[in-house]
Fold:
Amino acid sequence: MTQEIDSLKREITALKSKLVAQRREVARYRMLSSVFQSATQPIALVNTNFQIISVNPAFCKLTEYDESEIQFFPINAMIAHHKRGELWPRVQTSLEQEGHWEGLLWNEGKTGTVYRVDTHIHSLDNDDPDMANYVFFFRDVTQEKETEEKLAHRSNYDLITDLPNWNLFLNHFINALYTSGQKGSQTALLFIGLDGFKIINDTMGHTIGDKLLQEVAIRFSNTLSKETTVARFSGDQFTAVIPDIKNDEQTRLAAEATLASLHRPFDIENEEIHISCSIGICSWPGDGDDVETLLRNADSAMNKAKESGRNTYHFFTPDLDAKAQAKRTLEIDLRKAVQTFDEFHVVYQPIVDLKTGHMKSAEALVRWHNAERGLVSPDQFIPLAEQNHLIVPIGEWVLEQACREIKGWSDQSHSPFRVSVNLSSRQFREANLPDIIKGVLKRTGFNPNQLSLEITETLMMENIEDALVILHELKAMGVRLSIDDFGTGYSSLNYLKRFPLDTLKIDRMFVRDVTSNPEDAAMVSAILTMAQSLGLEVVGEGIETKEHNDFLLGKGCQLGQGYYYSRPLKIEEFNLFAEKRAFRTKAK
Structure:
């Protein structure tokens, strides 16, 4: 009896333990179920046939399916159709061989929305086909990936045109060179500069300018072959890399097609815009051993195309490289000279009364005498200074030197005297130009009324409203304003009457043939009539003969300058000339 009781006790204890274990298992199951249901991460339980047997609410929210709709639904059918054939075989093979897989899947929801999920899959070591054999964990990374892609796109593509930028262009260029090297062919580089884009951008606004760049980019891309990489290099410049070229004729045809793509006008915001381009061409191998050299040589060829009249193309030649090298060494010397200004001096060309020959004022002009080069022509270094922003410090130095030297002469002679100083386009666009002028006048003590600033009409017309603001600021300081090289730009009375001008200078190109060319004579007469209607003082430039002088005088022109009266003089020579004040030429 005692043994039976002990056996029964053992059975009861074992039963209790089993019940406790079952309760614990139920509790554990309930806990896991609760975790499964409340998890914010989408989870799917999948059987050995890769069918869904259970999903949590987060999965339903992500996919927009109810659990009942996808019971025993093939899990691979959740992958977007365009990615399924690529992704699922790799996933299935990894699960069957290694029991786990992780990576990025492109899934598709109930409404067709495609989203990307960072996916982790683990085997549960359960062979029962009705039970979960795999657990899929998903994390929606769609927005995260889109942000990454946008950042990557931004680092490789131009924000305005969406063409490859320098980074991607360089990568494609190097690949093209490698491919051509492997095939024994050539790679052509087209360096494309838009003609006159700056005027369009300044006069019509940057919004239209940006849209024009976008439309130009589309035409270039549609015109050139799909193997060609078209990129926006900078500003209004583009590049095109054509790989695997067999001969120059292919390149020539590509350049001609690129030029022709801009023949049709652009319709942008109801404005009809015409623009052309100039193209420089070089090729590898032959025109350079590296990307930097090839770009530099193609740029030289493009500049040659612009010098040849624009709207054309030019192949690189060794003499262009020599010119480019000479230009670079000239720039180096110019930069050194600007550091001290010891090699610069100012010369003055008298401006005289055409009736009396008395000197009324003078134009200040800069000269550069390099120790090795000798006297460097302004036609050489002024455009270079403009391109490299050196014209701003040079212009300020000329202005201060002229004010200082003419003040010294005026103080010594007790005769106030006016001097004219040219403002370059870059100087005029400097936001602090009025402050620079004020600073020079303050440092030199020069009377503002004795200073005349010369600005070209084309420069004023590039952005009329901004020009008006600057000119009125300068005028308020007391300086005189002169429009230089008149007749070469817009020459519109409607525009000119808005500007606070004092003087108008007739460009020398009209004066040169005024006695032999009826068109030039008519132009000069029209300019003088316009100036009289505006109450402007007129200076005729480039007077070299008595006939020039007499013609202008007869048409009512008051003042003139040119070699008929005097070449530009150094300050010492100018002082001697100025003492005479009533100088006459031998012809008189």
Remarks:
- The radius of gyration is 40 Å.
